[in-house]
Design goal:
The protein has 352 residues and is α/β, with parallel strands linked by helices. It has 2 domains: 125 residues, Rossmann fold; 169 residues, Dihydrodipicolinate Reductase, domain 2 (2-Layer Sandwich). Helix content is 30%, strand content 20%. The chain is built from 12 helices and 13 strands. Strand 1, helix 1 and strand 2 form a beta-alpha-beta unit. Helix 8 runs parallel beside helix 10.
Length: 352
């Protein structure tokens, strides 16, 4: 059995890791970490865990946790994992970090967009970006995995084959994305209160959302650019908040290269993703909906070619708490320990 510890187990993503690991056949949770609920029963924080979890919440002592766990999930705000990790911990255990602390290879870019000094920059070179369908070979050898964000997972997987195959002009990419309110976390924030969100939709982080450089970096690698040397694709990314609990829908636009056909687009997706369990290709003219992926680790992708404008329009949808956070983290754990990637993750989407 894989012994797993969770720091940040009482946030939405952390609680989702708990839900997934409780039904994982080869994992057991040995640490329910929480800064806000130390010594409180976990099932009193999340009553859906009544009679399922008897343990009490512990703190954030990663040094102690590393002695007990084979893998540590850090479902915490930016900066915490970087402030806690050290070489001894990485010798004792593996870390899957759900924050952005180790996702971006250029420290200057991280510090600019996240407006904080990186406290563990020495570990950035070895950290592996945990987008399983793209980096599984590197993930399998890693000590430190940077679990991607929800917007980024949707956007990158939707566009990656087309950028890698040179079918679209990467400098024309526009991503219009929508998220459910759980993406903002469990903390009390005025803009996320029911009366502030219900019966409305709003953009936020316009031209400034911090997932932008993460998407740019990964698509730059797809295009063969030297991102760390300063070469980068530039995109326009605008997220929106919609009044639903879960889900991400990213609608991506890009100019097609001259002569590119719909058959080439279809072949690009099929060649890249035909063997990927968690990516469901809907094909040309069919488009995803968040309700068809809710509660699952699937990504649904559909697309069309707008002949009138010469643009590709591709849409991706996923559950931001599963494939966009906890499910991908467990998928990374499975890769780290040589298990089938879908172990404990064969979740049928919930409907209605």
């Amino acid at each position: 059995m894989i012994k797993a510890g969770i720091i940040g187990s009482t946030g939405y993503a952390g609680a989702e890791i708990v839900r997934l690991l409780l039904q994982h056949p080869q994992a057991e949770i040995v640490w329910y970490g929480s800064r806000s609920y130390i010594d409180q029963k976990y099932a009193d924080v999340y009553r859906n865990m009544f009679d399922l979890v008897d343990e009490r919440c512990l703190g954030e002592d990663m040094d102690e946790l590393a002695k007990k766990a084979d893998v540590i999930f850090t479902a915490t705000p930016q900066g915490l994992c970087a402030s806690l990790v050290n070489e001894k911990i990485l010798q004792d255990t593996k870390i899957v970090d759900l924050s952005a602390d180790f996702r971006i290879k250029r420290v200057d870019v991280y510090e600019k967009w996240y407006k904080r000094t990186h406290e563990a920059a020495q570990f950035i070179p070895e950290a592996v970006y945990g987008l399983c369908e793209i980096n599984r070979e590197s993930i399998s050898k890693a000590r430190l995995v940077a679990n991607p964000g929800c917007y980024t997972t949707t956007s990158i997987l939707t566009l990656y084959p087309l950028v890698a195959d040179g079918l679209i002009d990467p400098d024309t990419i526009i991503i219009d994305a929508k998220s459910g309110t759980s993406g903002a976390g469990r903390g009390t924030k005025l803009p996320n209160l029911y009366c502030e969100v219900n019966e409305s939709i709003k953009p936020y982080g316009v031209a400034s959302h911090r997932h932008t450089p993460e998407i740019e970096e990964q698509l730059s690698y797809a295009a063969g650019l030297d991102y760390q040397g300063g070469q980068s694709i530039l995109i326009s990314f605008t997220p929106h908040l919609v009044p639903m609990n879960r889900g991400i829908l990213a609608t991506c636009y890009a100019k097609l290269k001259d002569g590119v056909t719909a058959d080439q687009i279809s072949a690009s997706y099929e060649n890249r993703y035909k063997d990927e369990y968690f990516i469901r290709l809907l094909g040309a003219g069919n488009f995803p909906e968040t309700r068809w992926v809710e509660g699952s680790n699937f990504v649904d992708i559909g697309w069309t070619v707008d002949e009138r404008t010469g643009r590709l329009i591709a849409c991706g949808a996923l559950d931001n708490l599963v494939k966009g956070a906890a499910g991908q983290a467990v998928q990374n754990m499975n890769i780290l320990f040589g298990l089938e990637e879908n172990t404990g993750l064969k979740l049928v989407p919930v409907f209605p």
